[in-house]
Predict the structure.
Amino acid sequence: MQGMLSPSPARARPPAPTPTPLDHLAQTGLLRCAVPARMGGAGGDPADLALAAGLLLQRDTAAAAVFWAQRLAIEALVQSPNVALRELWLPDLLSGERAGTLSPHTTPLIGTDTGRGWLLSGELPDVPNRPWEGFSLVAPLRLGTAPAGWALLRSEEDGLGALPGADQPHAHPAPHLATLALRRVYFREDEWLGEADLTQRMAPIAQALAPFQPRPQAAQA
């Protein structure tokens, strides 16, 4: 009939996003292993975590590095005395909605007091688990002459990013790792995770995860 609109052709549905290693880890429940139930975890101890992770990750180095980073970032929040910071970020890290990461190297970032707050500078090598959507970085830092401590920084902050070309195979021996550079990144006091003793409180989980710690391929040869 004249004047009637013809039906529009059916639109193809966009392809579903490919699940990431972090998505798979969240689906297995492995991220919640050895996290207290009162914090949203599944309970258990570091030995349970090491056993479960070994069964799933022994042949997948990229996923193992993601797991190491995500689970240690979770542990930093579990052990932190900063309850508000834990309640803000821990649920998203446990569910895999937010990536968490850190460097296997513990040279602290250096804070400079501007009179209006602290600005952090330094480099953290061999960092995995850095999706483009954003991530939370567990970082060692030293503010002036105070003892070293730990903070949880957001990748969205100005001055925080991977060195140029860091994800290219010719620029780094392990393409899934990168060096993060911080250039005068503003530090907020509510991002403080804890003092140096946080390292000792995280130690049982860190030891359980040692086989999954990312290592550049050159160091593995």
Notes: DSSP finds six helices and eight strands in the chain.
